[in-house]
Design goal:
- It is elongated, with a radius of gyration of 14 Å.
- It is built from no helices and two strands.
- The chain has strands at about 10-20, 25-35.
- It has a two-stranded antiparallel ribbon.
- It is mainly β.
Length: about 40
């Protein structure tokens, strides 16, 4: 199970992921969250 773990006050967390299919396409994405779980970008 994947879940959000609370950070220390004032910290931010960057989660990223990517995928690649040989000879075809690639993609990536990410999210930045503050210590309250709010999205920053």
């Amino acid at each position: 199970m994947i879940y959000w773990k609370t950070l220390l006050e004032g910290w931010v967390k960057l989660n990223t992921d990517g995928a690649y299919k040989e000879g075809s396409a690639a993609g990536s994405g990410g999210v930045i969250r503050d210590s309250h779980g709010g999205w920053l970008g």
